[in-house]
Amino acid sequence: MTATKTTPAEVQIPPRDIHFDFEGAKGRRWLGGDPVGTAVFNALSLTFPDGERMFIDAVRAYRDRVDGKLAEDVKGFIVQESIHSREHHTLNQLIDRDFYEVDYIEASIKERVAIARSRGPMRMLLSTIALEHITSMMADIHAANQHLFDSAPPGVERMWRWHAMEETEHKAVAFDVFMVATKDWTPFQRYFRRCMVMAIIGIMFPRNITDYAAHLLQADGYSKEGAVKAVKRFLWREPGIFGRGWKLFFAWFKPGFHPWDHDNRALVTTWRKEFDADLATPIPATA
Ligand SMILES: [Fe+2]
Ligand SMILES: [Fe+2]
User: Fold this and answer.
1) Would you call 255 exposed, middle or buried from its count of C-beta atoms within 10 A (0-12, 13-18, 19+)?
2) What is the CATH number of domain 31-257?
3) Minimum-distance ligand to the CA of 84?
């Protein structure tokens, strides 16, 4: 029998309590003058505060079942995600709300998160592990496409890179909690449930981001069809921030999958040097 896979012992999940400088995000086309890329990253940012709060509650619901290194990882996960949520909320307040239809997007996100929450803690945890797989995949693509942020405001660039790094560090925490919480399930039950949830989320998440980004883009003068086409091109083809991750994405459907099967510790090590200066000590009381 093979040992249960977990987050590697040497991967730490330290919270870094950083307040980023978002002044430059007040400009309408902060991503190098590109309205499409700006709309996509603003759409992603708008989903994070409520989404990440749900991730925290999903993991917290099973917290009393874990101990040792995983208990420490859970603590780090909760604080990292709560700081992400805070920073994205701050950034989202700077989007020009008189110009862009932000209210529609925020209302839609709140409704979707409320539905996910109403289905109970296990369904929330399943959604969390699926979305954490997608965010960690995006972190890898971010690392390969850092040039996209070359002419972005430095504070905004740093925030997206910090988020990508911490998503990599904690990419398996919710998954590890899921494995403990379902230890009485058969391997097939686990496999079936997580694949079913990913089949839904793998379609719904890109669809929602396309819808939200296209709504933002219409304010920039695009027709509805033109906006959808431009956003899909950005997501799937060039630069392809979703499309380039298909191999990583489909790894999920391998029986016995674990997020650290894709070992990208080197990526974390490189980025950490810059951000570790801001390690949060002590861990805030919200943990
Ligand atoms: Fe996050
Ligand atoms: Fe995360």
Assistant:
1) exposed
2) 1.10.620
3) 1
